[in-house]
From TrEMBL:
It comes from Dendrobium nobile (Orchid). One of its GO terms (cellular component) is cytoplasm. Residues 242-315 form the GH3 middle domain. One of its GO terms (molecular function) is acid-amino acid ligase activity. It comes from the Eukaryota. InterPro entries: GH3, GH3_C, GH3_M. This is Uncharacterized protein.
Length: 482
């Protein structure tokens, strides 16, 4: 997505409004610190020599963030050097250590996405003993963090604290992780995470780890444009609505019933939307996007004065998402077709498939259910576990670069899993759908499933499971102009 320097100024203005709104509902946030797990990703270069990077990486590397003046309402525990380190392990270790050392000052805990906060908790589960050892000794292990700028920044406040180390071992080593956030950071008032859209799947897990802390979704934004604010940030996640700021771009809305009709869709502007109706968002930005269809479906829930408020309903055509990745039906279809070529020499083929974003483990991962068919008796033996493992690899290789970077560099997505189900499973799935009122003439196999009874049906028919034995290939693209 194209961006310009002035766009950072505009986005900084939106950031500056977050805490004044939050302070109405949670006063006193200037009296402590925020433990936010923030990360950058590796940059690349376009053929024309322009830097290409995720929007948040662009912001964190900007002058606005690097040289921001002290703000008591945005006083982070994480040193800037730790946030700007592209090595995700070193960055996470230093940010977690800093958060532990300032634990009694922490008033809010968060990450950009809910998945990012759960990833941090999983990191604590895996590394609390090493963190406790560093806290007890008052020194940062070189095996964990070798980056000189991080070591220098952490050294400014790292002192031996055996009592804190003992508390960490006691709380994390008990095996009981319910309410771990408030047990370690007892003054935490709320979680600051996005839990709308695909991130809603993480709400129960966050409630378990936080002991039921409220979750604040403060703003609505995308790589293309920042849109607006949640003016009631302490509402329940299923009640979150955003008020769009008209100075961030020019916004139009395609009524959903019209966008699927035979006639061309007719867009309306911000002043013409109607309460209760759903729209597809269209934007024209200062950075050069013209009438760009973002792919977000929004529902008008009411008005703040004369400004409409919108609830995020879903991403158009997106099937699977764990973190910042987005996989649509066409991409998943192409990946399955590519992977299934490996089993063709064995006289086998994929007759049906569906998928789910599995988030009961950290990190979450894609699960694809395959029903296989064997052609003839004269072919070679049935494909074995090693071949099906490689099908997982081929599937991942066919997915987009955001997914592969998350797997390789950030490790925020786990290895893809293929679950082979017994023959006839998808007929049973159709029978179940018809028993619930689906039309036999119009039934289509869902390419992604979220309904628990359907997942339970599929899992009860699994005959073998296979995981990708290695990460897919991913390298940042860097082009030479010579």
């Amino acid at each position: 997505m194209p961006t310009i320097q002035e766009e950072l100024d505009r986005r900084q203005l939106l950031y500056s409004l977050l805490m004044p709104v939050m302070n109405i509902y949670v006063p006193g946030l200037d009296k402590g610190k925020a433990l936010y797990f923030l990360f950058v990703k590796t940059e690349s270069t376009t053929p024309g020599g322009l830097p290409a990077r995720p929007v948040l990486t662009s912001y964190y590397n900007s002058h606005h963030f690097r040289h921001r003046p002290f703000d008591p309402y945005n006083n982070y525990t994480s040193p800037t050097a730790a946030i700007l380190c592209p090595d995700s392990h070193q960055s996470m270790y230093a940010q977690m250590l800093s958060g532990l050392l300032h634990r009694l000052e922490v008033l809010r805990v968060g990450a950009v996405f809910a998945s990012g906060l759960l990833r941090a908790i999983r990191f604590l589960q895996l590394h609390y003993r090493s963190l406790a050892a560093d806290i007890s000794d008052g020194s940062l292990s070189f095996d964990q963090v070798s980056d000189p700028s991080i070591r220098s920044a952490v050294a400014a406040f790292l002192r031996p604290d055996p009592a804190l180390a003992d508390l960490l071992i006691r709380e994390c080593g008990s095996g009981d992780w319910a309410g771990i956030v408030t047990r370690i950071w007892p003054n935490t008032k709320y979680l600051d995470v996005i839990v709308t859209g695909a991130m809603a799947q993480y709400i129960p897990t966050l409630e378990y780890y936080s002991g039921g802390l409220p979750m604040a979704c403060t703003m609505y934004a995308s790589s293309e444009c920042y849109f607006g604010l949640n003016l009631r940030p302490m509402c329940r996640p299923d009640e979150v609505s955003y008020t769009i700021m008209p100075n961030m771009g020019y916004f139009e809305f395609i009524p959903c019933d019209e966008s699927t009709a035979a006639a061309p869709a007719t867009a309306v502007d911000l002043t013409e939307v109607e309460e209760g109706k759903e729209y597809e968002l269209v934007i024209t930005t200062y950075a050069g996007l013209y009438r760009y269809r973002v792919g977000d479906i929004l529902r008008v829930t009411g008005f703040h004065n004369a400004a409409p408020m919108f609830r995020f309903v879903r991403r158009k055509n997106v099937l699977l998402s764990i973190e910042s990745d987005k996989t649509d039906e066409a991409e998943l279809q192409a990946a399955v077709e590519r992977a299934s070529k490996l089993i063709e020499p064995y006289g086998a083929s994929v007759v049906e498939y569906t998928s789910q974003a599995y988030t009961k483990e950290i990190p979450g991962h894609y699960v694809i259910y395959w029903e296989l068919m064997k052609r003839g008796e004269g072919e070679r033996e049935t494909p074995g576990a090693e071949i099906l493992d490689m099908c997982c690899v081929e599937t991942e290789e066919a997915l987009n670069s955001v997914y592969r970077q998350s797997r390789v560099m950030d490790r925020s997505i786990g290895p893809l899993e293929i679950r082979v189900v017994r023959p006839g499973t998808f007929e049973e799935l159709m029978d179940y759908a018809i028993s619930r009122g689906a039309s036999i003439n119009q039934y289509k196999v869902p390419r992604c499933v979220t309904f628990s009874p359907i997942i339970e049906l599929l899992d009860s028919r699994v005959v073998s499971t296979h995981f990708s034995p290695r990460p897919p290939t991913w390298m940042p693209q860097r082009h030479s102009l010579t």
